[in-house]
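Form 7-S
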Amino acid sequence: MPVRDKGTGRAPRPDDGPRHGGAPGGTAHSAAARNLRWLLGNLVEEVPGVRSVAVISSDGLLLCSSEADGDDPAAPGERATGPGKAGGDLATVVSGLASLTDGAARLMSAGTVKQTVVAMDNGCLFVMAISDGSLLGVHASPECDMSVVAYHMALFVGRAGHVLTPELRSELSRSGRTDGTSGAHGAYGTAGNDQADPNDLRGSGR
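Output:
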């Protein structure tokens, strides 16, 4: 768990610390990439019940994940933010689910898919579209408040829509290929071109 600033009570932002260095293994190092990873880590740390988060590109590539690599777990007290095998698994599931729901939306002439929620005995899976065509996938515990998770996901989507520039997507894609964590394969269609609006979600929990 990240050390919180005693004055603000929040997790340190990426621009609070040194500008040099970064995660090993070919992980992207730009300020924009650090900012996106901070947003991911903050979503996991601040929203009760959220277990892992991943951002997946429109062609099914894992761009960024809060999960540690299954063969190289994070050190005690630390949270890995670079794509790993566990993050790749989440990306595969999210990409496949997005493809399925996109097909259902076309079949029903229902327009674009804004969000998808799957409730299971031992967990919940949330998928939400980001404005650039990429996806946000969240794995949460069964005890989570779904409306609160969806609300904070929508906030993330609004922020990530400004952060995920073509340059950053290219940087993260190159980093993922270098790490061998390409995630899911195959595009999921045109689902997710509309940015979610937090005001459209009920039960914000605030």
